[in-house]
Amino acid sequence: MARITMREAISQALWEEMERDERVFILGEEVGVWGGTYAVTKGFYDHFGPKRVKDTPIAEAAIIGAAIGAALTGLRPVAEMMTINFAFVAMDHIVNEAAKLHYMFNGQMRVPMVIRAPGGGGRQLGATHSQTPDAIFAHFPGLKVVAPGTPADAKGLLKAAIRSEDPVLFIEHATLYQTRGEVPEGEYIVPIGKSTVQRPGKDVTIVTYSKMLELSLKAADELAKEGIEAEIVDLRSLRPLDMGPVIESFKKTNRAVVVEEGWPSYGVGAEVATRIYEQAFDYADAPVKRVAQKEVPLPYNRTLEQMALPHVEDIVAAVKEVL
Amino acid sequence: MEKQEYLNLYHQMVVIRLLEEKVAELYQQGKIGGFLHLYIGQEAVSTGLISTRRPEDRVITAYRDHGVAINCGLPAGGIIAEMLGKATGVSGGKGGSMHLADVEKNFWGGHAIVGAHLPLAAGLALGDQYQGNAAVTICMFGDGATNIGFFHEALNLSKVWNLPVLWVCENNQYGMGTAVERASAVSEIRRKADGYGMKNAVADGMNLMDVREVAGKMMEEIRAGGGPQFLEIMTYRFRGHSMGDPERYRKPDEIRKWEENDPIGIYRKYLVDHQIASEDELNAQDQSAEKEIAEAVEFAENSPEPAAEELFKHIYVEE
Ligand SMILES: Cc1ncc(C[n+]2csc(CCOP(=O)(O)OP(=O)(O)O)c2C)c(N)n1
Ligand SMILES: [Mg+2]
């Protein structure tokens, strides 16, 4: 296994799928000549050519809409939103078209497409460019939403997403691109809708995903120094949401903290906590705690922005509260 | 125009140029974060354009907003302080480079979602029309922004409602790395206004006097109730799209060719050739602009960070 970055893992998955299947093509802003705003598709244009690596005008609704149309004809488009914040421009096509067509037309139509969208805060990009709106997208039945936290999962989930018969939103975190990890070469699939334990432990369950996995692992290291063994469950997919490993872990630890980067209201933590109560109320020894972003639009100023984002210390503190 | 006004416009362009060079440095030193989009090469566009506005006329633009802010009369100190995230920044350090604004100066902001401010501009103009104000809204945006739905919806609405808007496309030939003809079905962007039955014109954005003349006439017609018009201004950004642009999409030759048409040089030559100002007088302007920027940087660097409680302020209006 090679140790590569998240960027390389995503790039590898795309490359291999395009080599494997002629129907797979990429479209988006600056994906071609520029090589991708985050350099994920660097070299693709030269290798695959303009038919399969399509630079688009700045027109998110048309990018997603056209990807849906192409998917209806049997192609497998991978549409890139330069950042997830711009997906709001295409919201109608994502939620009213991509997520609905198969159901509404009684299974006649299929939308096998992927939307890749980097998001997340912490880079002083200001309120409109720093959001982690994952939960919003996970609200809609008909759309699958995945958000990997490790390079291996990024590769495996992206391959699964491209091969999925349904529309999948693949959320990347812009501050994870340089993160390294072991990634299996060649064919490697991580099924959509499967949570996994990233670190075993017996005292408390930390439920998290994407960037917050990195912080949770660090928090677990801190806690271990004090003899507290945290078990970390990585959701990896927000819809479908696999509560199996979460519930199993909670029945063992009887305590849980849910960590997400987005806002807590109506969020991932709210959803997971509710399901824990619904499915394992009798096992709870303490109320489930949420760690999340402060309920403010993210400001530009570095200090204020950092104040608003969740940190390792917040996770450690939350764990101590539930113990 | 009075002589002093000619000199003021020259001064503004030099201030913009120096400010941009300075903030590029501050960015490289890690003092400015996030995205930073420079206006170098495009100074004559907003300087000429905004010289035609009256105080009651509103201005709104995209994220490439530093020059526009200077032309609207925002202090260089408050602009640089904003980029440094300081409490004295024009947006209190919460907005950053892309979100400068000063409502008292009728500058309604830089906006970072491409094209999203165009419908807002229609609304600003609606506000004036509704309240019987004889004001025009100047809405600036890039060539790339003319390909997004917002643009078409806003233009159409403005015409249907006869709103007092001057739509101004700053055609700097590229939206990030994408040349106009790779992204737009018509490369002569002003033709898009024909689709909405809207009067349109083109101006040379490297030539302040041309911009001023063409825009001035349009502003008067709009002010008189003639409805929205569309102005395409041809220009070029001498630097990358933002700091850190790998610039794989244009050749050094092309950039050099445009740099020979430096808008500040062209205007300076115009002033000298027409004996409006002497070299000495212009050099004095250069020096005072340098001093102004040096003071602005000092002010910004010495300003305090916003207080922690600012984080939770202005989420909603406090009543
Ligand atoms: C809706 C949306 N999509 C994409 C972006 C990313 N983006 C920022 S600037 C830009 C290019 C805009 O080009 P243009 O309108 O020509 O303005 P210029 O930068 O040349 O001044 C892009 C694609 C964005 N901010 N908003
Ligand atoms: Mg442009």
TrEMBL record, chain A:
InterPro entries: THDP-binding, Transketo_C/PFOR_II, Transketolase-like_Pyr-bd, Transketolase_C. GO terms for molecular function: oxidoreductase activity. Its cofactor is thiamine diphosphate. The keyword Iron does not apply. Residues 4-179 form the Transketolase-like pyrimidine-binding domain. SUPFAM superfamilies: Thiamin diphosphate-binding fold (THDP-binding) (SSF52518), TK C-terminal domain-like (SSF52922). The keyword Amino-acid biosynthesis does not apply. It holds the Pfam family Transketolase_C. Keywords: Oxidoreductase, Pyruvate, Thiamine pyrophosphate. PANTHER family: PYRUVATE DEHYDROGENASE E1 COMPONENT BETA SUBUNIT, PYRUVATE DEHYDROGENASE E1 COMPONENT SUBUNIT BETA. This is Pyruvate dehydrogenase. The lineage of its organism: Bacteria, Bacillati, Chloroflexota, Anaerolineae, Anaerolineales.
From TrEMBL, chain B:
GO terms for molecular function: pyruvate dehydrogenase (acetyl-transferring) activity. GO terms for biological process: pyruvate decarboxylation to acetyl-CoA. Its EC number is 1.2.4.1. It comes from the Bacteria. Pfam families: E1_dh. Residues 12-308 form the Dehydrogenase E1 component domain. Coiled coil: none annotated. The keyword Oxidoreductase applies. It is an enzyme of class 1 (oxidoreductase). Its cofactor is thiamine diphosphate. Keywords: Oxidoreductase, Pyruvate, Thiamine pyrophosphate. The keyword Oxidoreductase applies. It catalyses: N(6)-[(R)-lipoyl]-L-lysyl-[protein] + pyruvate + H(+) = N(6)-[(R)-S(8)-acetyldihydrolipoyl]-L-lysyl-[protein] + CO2. InterPro entries: DH_E1, PDH_E1_Alpha_Subunit, Pyrv_DH_E1_asu_subgrp-y, THDP-binding. The pyruvate dehydrogenase complex catalyzes the overall conversion of pyruvate to acetyl-CoA and CO(2). Heterodimer of an alpha and a beta chain. This is Pyruvate dehydrogenase E1 component subunit alpha. It comes from Levilinea saccharolytica. The gene is pdhA.
